[in-house]
C-alpha cells in the first residue's frame, strides 16, 4: 500500500462525495455529501477536509467544516469535524490516526464534533478533547403564556438582529432550520434558531441550535416550548450547557453520543450547533 494523507482541494469534491456515498452511507446522496466540502460559508483559504489517497484513489476522508463565529472573547475560528471514514483494508495500519491528527492540527482553532462514535471519543480524548455535553433538557409545551411574544416574520426578525447575527442568518440560508425572536414584556428577549426532526415514535424534537441570550432562554424555556412546539407531539430540547443552574431543568435526557470539543479560549456555552455537519447533511442532532 502507498496510502498518504493530504488536504482535499476543489478537484477532490466530486470523488470524495462519491466515495462517501458508496462506502460510508448510501442513503445520503453524493450531492448531499458534496456539501461537506463545498459549504456556503467556507473561508477561502482553508482545506476542504483531509483525505487518504492510494495510487490516485480516495480510500479515506475526514471533513473539516470551518466557520468564524462570535463568542464572548470576540470572533473565533471554529472547525466542525465530520465523517471520519477509512476503507476496511486500511484500518489498523496507523493511517487512520494520521488522518485524524491532520484534521485537528491548526493552532488557535476551536474544534468540535457532535457525531463521534464511542471509539472515536476515546481517541480524541487522548488528543486533548473534552466532553462538551452529555445531557439535554426537554420541555413539553404547556399552556400558552401572554408575557412572551414570538416574532416569526423574516423581515421583522432581520431588523432586530445585529450585523454579525445577520451574517449568521445569511450563512444558513436554504437549510432546514427555523428562526424566531422571542420577546418578553420588559423588552428582553432572544433570537432563537432550532431544528425540527422526528425521533423514535413520532416525537418531534425541536433542538436548539443557537440563542443570542442563553440566560433568557434558560429562564423561559418551558414557556418558549409552548410557543415553538405547536400542534404536535413535541419537545423543546436544549443542551445542558445552554441552561443555568437554578432554572427549571425540565426532563433531563442523556445524549446517546456525547459531544466533544477542544479550544484554547472559547467557553462551552459559546460552542453551538450552527455551521455543522448535521445541518449540511440535513440530519437530526444526535
Automatic annotation (TrEMBL):
UniProt xrefs under CDD domains: NAT_SF
Alphabetized GO MF terms: acyltransferase activity, transferring groups other than amino-acyl groups
Record-given protein name: GNAT family N-acetyltransferase
Family annotation (PROSITE patterns): GNAT (PS51186)
N-acetyltransferase domain boundaries: 3-152
Amino acid at each position: 500500500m502507498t496510502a498518504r494523507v493530504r488536504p482535499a482541494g476543489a478537484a477532490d469534491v466530486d470523488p470524495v462525495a462519491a466515495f462517501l456515498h458508496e462506502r460510508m452511507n448510501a442513503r445520503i446522496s453524493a450531492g448531499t455529501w458534496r456539501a461537506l466540502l463545498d459549504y456556503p460559508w467556507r473561508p477561502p483559504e482553508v482545506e476542504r477536509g483531509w483525505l487518504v489517497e492510494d495510487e490516485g484513489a480516495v480510500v479515506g476522508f475526514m471533513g473539516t467544516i470551518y466557520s468564524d463565529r462570535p463568542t464572548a472573547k470576540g470572533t473565533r475560528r471554529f472547525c466542525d469535524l465530520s465523517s471520519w471514514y477509512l476503507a476496511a483494508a486500511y484500518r489498523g495500519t496507523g493511517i487512520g490516526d494520521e488522518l485524524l491528527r491532520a484534521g485537528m492540527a491548526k493552532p488557535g482553532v476551536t474544534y468540535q464534533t457532535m457525531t463521534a462514535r464511542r471509539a472515536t471519543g476515546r481517541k480524541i480524548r487522548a488528543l486533548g478533547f473534552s466532553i462538551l455535553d452529555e445531557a439535554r433538557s426537554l420541555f413539553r409545551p404547556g399552556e400558552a403564556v401572554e408575557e412572551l411574544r414570538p416574532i416569526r416574520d423574516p423581515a421583522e426578525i432581520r431588523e432586530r438582529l445585529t450585523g454579525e447575527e445577520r451574517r449568521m442568518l445569511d450563512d444558513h440560508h436554504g437549510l432546514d432550520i427555523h428562526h424566531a425572536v422571542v420577546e418578553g414584556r420588559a423588552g428582553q428577549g432572544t433570537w432563537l434558531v432550532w431544528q425540527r426532526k422526528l425521533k423514535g415514535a413520532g416525537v418531534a424534537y425541536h433542538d436548539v441550535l443557537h440563542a443570542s441570550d442563553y440566560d433568557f432562554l434558560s429562564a423561559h424555556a418551558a414557556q418558549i416550548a409552548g410557543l415553538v412546539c405547536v400542534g404536535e407531539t413535541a419537545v423543546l430540547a436544549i443542551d445542558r450547557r445552554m441552561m443555568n443552574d437554578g432554572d427549571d431543568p425540565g426532563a433531563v435526557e442523556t445524549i446517546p453520543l456525547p459531544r466533544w470539543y477542544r479550544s484554547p479560549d472559547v467557553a462551552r456555552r459559546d460552542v453551538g450547533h450552527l455551521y455543522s455537519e448535521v445541518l449540511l447533511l440535513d440530519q437530526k442532532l444526535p
